[in-house]
Amino acid sequence: MSRILITGSTGFIGGRAAATAAARADVEHLGLLARRPLPPPAAAGADEPAPGERNQGRRPDSETVVGDLRDHASLRRACEGVDVLVHCASAIGVDDETAHAVNDEGTRALVDAAVRAGVTRIVALSTASVHGRGPFRAAAPGTLPLAPGSATSRTRAAGERHVLEAGGTVLRPHFVYGTGDRQLVPGLVRLLAALPGPLDAGASLHSVIGVDALARVLVGAALSDRTEPGPYYVNHPEPVPVAELLAPCESLVTGRPADGRGAAVDVAEARELLADLPFALHHLAMLAPDHWFEDDRPWGDLACDPGPAFTEGIAEHLPWYRGLLERE
Predict the structure, then answer these.
(1) How many domains is the chain built from?
(2) Which of 31, 97, 194, 287 sits at 20 to 30 Å (Cα–Cα) from 78?
(3) pLDDT at 327 over 60
């Protein structure tokens, strides 16, 4: 039985990790670090635990631990009595000073507090973006240098270092989709909407994972005796062709007819058309080269379920995305 602290539990991925942990029978106590009090996570919304891990009607004690990665004293209080730390909090798309304070210095302070409190395992969520832009094809852990290209990625790479130096585990997904995602699919939809026709992005392959599968790995890695220190890539084992990735996003584009909307636009033409739209150029740059990371350990050694392949997996989330885009 473990006592877990999860940071970032109000976020897209951390919230799913909290719900997944709340459904586990091997969790005695669940602490959720947040800047304000929160209701306990709803285990009913979590995916079915693996056999032998079902809750059997008992939910772990759950509490909100009020704190902030920039308030180092609060981190020391939060780590008291904790066995396992799952660190999902990060600052994305903020100014350089905030990114440094949260992703780098905040992670350092959190890891220091955890080590001093006797935490036995630290699992941190990072991103494959710490390697910069591809092409990456079937890249295995330990084969790529760190080459972050933005303040967010640079400071998250710095945060990784603190976790790894403490003997912790870092999970690096690439594209993450699902209910609650306000970056990946909405960004791709805005990119496509800015073009006169569908995008022909070539034949690149991309690593993708659903948020529920990622949450299972986060909690599974925190609780498994087979978890290794160091970095893992965490993506569905089948890479997704870029055309397959874009198809559901194209279906979400509003304001133009379903057919006859113009010829397909290739990457070179799209760069010219989107020259004044930095956000669209950013997403386009992610699509053109391969970003395929290969690591079977989450699904083999840790025995986590990768969930359905992308086209099937995203279908259940399309109504949520449609509602989000209609409200924006």
Answers:
(1) 1
(2) 97
(3) yes
